[in-house]
Design brief:
The structure is a homodimer.
Chain A: H1 2-6, E1 10-19, E2 39-47, E3 55-61, H2 66-75, H3 77-80, H4 85-90, H5 92-100, H6 113-134, H7 138-143, H8 147-153, H9 165-175, H10 179-189, E4 191-195, H11 205-217, E5 222-226, H12 231-245, E6 250-254, H13 261-271, E7 279-280, H14 288-298, E8 303-305, H15 312-320, E9 326-327, H16 336-350, H17 363-378, E10 387-389, E11 403-404, E12 407-408, H18 422-427, H19 434-437
Parallel strand pairs in A: 4-10, 5-6, 6-7, 7-8, 8-9
Antiparallel strand pairs in A: 1-2, 2-3, 4-12, 11-12
Helix pairs in contact in A: 2-6, 5-6, 8-9, 9-16, 10-17, 11-12, 13-14, 15-16
Chain lengths: 440, 440
């Protein structure tokens, strides 16, 4: 194995606990999370390759416990450090299966919560590294892979009753012909975004009004309001938003898991006259049957969920029951790009549009790649699709998202847009960084 | 608040990473976990009270990642340390709700995986402390609480469509009359156990035969074999066990999440002629619809699950669909005693017997209390009920389980039987303890 001895290796998995004191301004306040401090358990993969590239990934959390998330990423270091770079990056499906199904670590999930998000952070960091080495943004790297290579990324375990590899291949082959035109259209027109910036519960009516007006001016076709504290308040805020935005704007609402099943049905029915585009997370993200019951009862009002759906197996069931009209994948909740490719394929199989969850810190940066890949190579459609956008914390990234006329511009820089500015890593390091020691 | 200043406080939440090198003997090997090192992220609650009692709880893991679990328990310390002891122990329902729904930590689950198990460890430690202070074993402490006080322990969030507080109260009131006789019967006869000791995949046929014989001699009425590596091998092992044990022994099998849905149906049907008492964990513990499909297809062969079911919301759905014939709650997977009271009530509502998961390290010690409480005060029945028993690692506990004639003797010592011997905490401390530095 002379070759192996000299081939570049992964030399380190470096972990940072980075937190932004967002709770000070009530940014991000919703019915269940009144005071989040947007945070990232941030991973950097280093190698001995001469190119000097590093791979960056992270798990998003909302403050307390980010150190637990960081510890979970560290627990994966022995599974990654020492691997040959070229071979590892050549088989991301194999890497993903090894990390997800580690016979001892899986007990901590299995495939859910802290350990699963940590796996996602590491897998996403490897995709960032792979894309940097090929000189492409991740969306394009994925969109240029052959259908068979894409199928090989996917862990089909527990999906066989709904999606087999041959079906996945057929979905990808059906979309293959139009890839080049769609990529070109994406580069010229961008991908639709919707904004949650106006919608936080902690904001005053004046601030809501001002931000709604801004959303219209910025060209957004959809916005989202948080609901669930008080139904009268929700109606008032919906009315304000509709007044300011006019009849064309799509207005979605988000309950952030606030309701019991029957309560959700009543609450949503009370909002029915106000022309709601979708209702997001009406109840526990684990309550698949609850979602189905709510969806049936409030039909035709569509439900959306995904940011807290732990893995492809739960998405599978939500789709099997027809409980979701919009699937909101999250870049850092599941086991990274690979599991999200599985989720995109499941959504395509059921004809459900994917409208990724974003916001937080860095989530917009990541999910834009997945949505664009979906458009070019999986669903082939922009119909009823939009990626969430929140105007927070983008300045901390080397390659931040670019919005124009309410649309995400297609990233052109190599990688996953996941690299945080080194000075931000230092300043927002918790608890020692200046942002925390100086109180701002 | 002069009173408050002098009232005893919780002064520390101490955390230990304890691991036993069980993989060296292939104890605990199954289809998904070939080489576990049984471990505990172990919590000790200390107070300033003059009685000197400490509360002990833990989350069970199988080795790698136990440090992540320990970090999660540490993350809960700020929510616990400094609290007044008396008030906190007087309202365990309130404490449980505060810990489970912490608005930032919940993002790490919600209510699943590492953070949820950590919450369980702390809540169980508080129950151990509470029971030590009242001088009772936990099963008895619970079994002597009024129906209303038991209802107040439960977090009914996301259960309203299936179990309301008034229904829970009615279940408990209906069972109240016979409590004293059942407690007396428990003290004299113990609670039925079943043994998994013979069943690990890593054992030879000779060892299987010897351990089956031993199980009969020890008076067990039920045993369990691991399956799922090879159906011919499973049939051979089932045949051996039946040969050795005779026709009366209940023989359950456990697939440890090994199968796809359709594969599970075929595999189970192949085992149908061999008189299987239940089939445990045929597929992903998240696949509620998959369980329901398997249950329908293999009817009347009963399914069992629970050790990886993350919370009461998932149990609720498995029960709603009639997918489980046996509910195997786990003492350290969910948020401790409080959530397990909810799960016992759900099972009672659906008339499904609870046969707790145990084994590992310390799980037998904990779950015996929950099963005995269920018998005395919730279900009121021993019919088709048995607590798992594995003959491993009990020697590390101050108040280990006592088996006689295949039955758990009712614990009499105060507490939750969760206190590990101090010398074991030192010797098996990872990575510095002698068990690890000396290789045995």
């Amino acid at each position: 194995m002379i070759h192996g001895m000299y081939s570049p290796r992964i030399t380190a998995l470096e972990v940072h606990d980075v937190r932004f004191p967002t709770s000070r301004a009530l940014d991000g306040s919703d019915a269940m999370h009144p005071d989040p401090d947007y945070s990232a358990a941030y991973a950097v993969v280093r190698t001995s390759a001469a190119d000097g590239h590093t791979g960056h990934g992270f798990a998003f959390t909302i403050g307390r416990g980010n150190e637990v998330q960081a510890a979970a990423i560290e627990a994966l270091a022995p599974l990654v450090v020492g691997r040959p770079v070229d071979e590892t990056l050549a088989d991301p499906g194999g890497l993903s299966r090894e990390l997800v199904h580690d016979s001892q670590l899986r007990w901590l999930g299995p495939e859910k919560g802290v350990i699963h998000m940590a796996t996602g952070a590491v897998i996403n960091a490897m995709w960032d590294l792979k894309a940097k080495r090929t000189g492409q943004p991740v969306w394009q790297l994925l969109a240029e892979m052959s259908p068979q290579d894409l199928v090989d990324l996917v862990d089909f375990r527990y999906l066989a009753d709904v999606l087999r590899p041959d079906e996945a291949l057929a979905i990808l082959e059906a979309t293959q012909p139009g890839r080049a035109e769609r990529a070109a259209r994406l580069r010229s027109e961008g991908y639709p975004a919707y904004t949650t910036t106006p919608g936080w519960l902690g904001y005053t009516d004046d601030k809501l009004r001002r931000l709604c007006k801004q959303a219209v001016e910025q060209g957004f076709g959809q916005l989202k309001l948080k609901i669930g504290r008080d139904v009268t308040e929700d109606v008032r805020r919906l009315t304000i938003a509709r007044e300011v935005c006019g009849p064309i704007m799509r207005i979605a609402v988000d309950a952030n898991q606030r309701f019991e099943v029957d309560e959700a049905i009543e609450w949503i029915q009370a909002l029915a006259p106000y022309d709601v585009w979708w209702v997001e997370e009406p109840t526990s993200p684990d309550d698949i049957l609850g979602y189905a019951a709510i969806a049936r009862a409030v039909d035709p009002i569509p439900l959306a969920a995904g940011e807290h759906v732990p893995n492809r197996v739960v998405f599978k069931q939500l789709l099997q029951l027809g409980a979701l009209s919009y699937l909101q994948l999250d870049a850092t909740r599941v086991a990274g790009v690979n599991e999200n490719v599985a989720i995109l394929l499941l959504a395509a199989k059921f004809g459900v549009p994917v409208c990724p969850h974003a916001g937080g810190v860095g989530l917009c940066e990541l999910v834009q790649h997945l949505a664009m890949f979906d458009y070019v190579a999986v669903s082939g459609s922009l119909d009823r699709r939009a990626v969430e956008y929140v105007d927070h914390l983008h300045e901390h990234f080397v390659d931040p998202v670019v919005l124009r006329d309410g649309r995400y511009r297609a990233p052109t820089a190599a990688g996953f847009s996941s690299t945080m500015r080194p000075e931000s890593l230092v300043r927002y390091s918790y608890p020692g960084g200046e942002a925390w020691t100086e109180g701002g």
